[in-house]
Write a structure and sequence with these properties.
Blueprint: E1 6-7, H1 8-14, H2 20-28, E2 32-34, E3 37-38, E4 44-45, E5 51-53, E6 56-57, E7 68-73, H3 89-93, E8 100-102, E9 110-116, H4 119-126, E10 134-140, H5 146-154, E11 157-158, E12 161-162, E13 167-170, E14 175-180, H6 187-194, E15 199-207, E16 210-211, E17 220-222, H7 225-235
Parallel strand pairs: 9-15
Antiparallel strand pairs: 1-4, 2-3, 2-5, 5-6, 7-9, 7-17, 8-9, 10-14, 10-15, 11-12, 13-14, 15-16
């Protein structure tokens, strides 16, 4: 095959239909055809090929205009595209175009999350090795002190590894700010639990260069051209190596993120 052929999952994500990971699931579920024939994982698409999902043709990437959204996710909304889940983020937003979340934010957490129809940008943003910052404001169930801040910032053992050193600053008797460059499963909550604390509220206030600002809970806005341009610069040197946590048994849909 020539260079004009690309992997099927990459082709599907480039149209904005879904992310590569979701595309792989659709292929494994025998819901994708190329030229009316069911295909296996690893299939490739060439010029003139007609790709369909559940019998409905999808258009090429040129037909889709990139959409980048910042959403202030309320507590109780799940970061999933599964429309069978009554709390799914897609139905809550109700955007007329097909979009999907970039990463996860726990159902019991609130704050900033991106949504897009640009499948290629998703994998680059999610690669933990790229040191993309995510900032949170957290309150816990009892008073914290300098020892808590020092231990949180120097790394906590969890999930068979140790969290990276990170910025932590106390901002109240039970409140602190933390900036992470990785996204282990329920990381902040597990870090606090290790030290004997229980998270009461957890709000993500920044992803990379984008601030939550005064965006009200449950509301969304389009990213500005300046914000998307900066994100493009930040991910331009994205590594192809992904930091992976130990495998877990069937995580819940909201299990990634914090």
């Amino acid at each position: 095959m020539g260079d004009e052929y690309i992997s099927l999952n990459k082709y599907i994500s480039s149209t904005g239909f879904c992310s590569r990971r979701e595309a792989d699931k659709l292929i494994e579920q025998a819901r994708v055809t190329i030229n009316d024939e069911l295909v296996l994982p690893g299939a490739r698409v060439g010029p003139g090929d007609k790709v369909a999902i559940d019998g409905e043709p999808i258009k090429g990437a040129s037909a889709k205009r990139p959409i980048y959204i910042a959403f202030n996710k309320p507590v109780g909304i799940t970061s999933t595209t599964d429309l069978k889940d009554p709390t799914n983020i897609i139905s809550y937003i109700g955007h007329p175009k097909r979009i999907f979340p970039v990463g996860r934010l726990d159902k019991d957490s609130d704050g900033l999350i991106f949504l897009t129809n640009d499948g290629d940008i998703v994998n680059k943003i999610l690669r933990a090795a790229n040191n993309h910052e995510k900032e949170y404001i957290v309150t816990v169930d009892k008073a914290i002190d300098g020892d808590f801040v020092a231990r949180m910032s120097n790394g906590i053992p969890m999930l068979g590894t140790r969290t990276r050193q990170c910025f932590v600053r106390q901002e109240g008797s039970r409140r602190f700010r933390i900036i992470l460059t990785q996204g282990l499963n329920r990381q902040i909550r597990r870090m606090c639990e290790y030290l004997g604390y229980r998270v009461q509220t957890l709000t993500r206030v920044r992803i990379m260069n984008v601030q939550l600002g005064n965006l009200a809970p449950g509301k969304w806005r389009y990213l500005t051209p300046a914000e998307t341009d900066k994100i493009t610069v930040l991910i331009s040197t994205s590594s192809k190596t992904t930091e992976q946590a130990p495998k877990k048994k069937k995580p819940r849909p909201q299990g990634r993120g914090n």
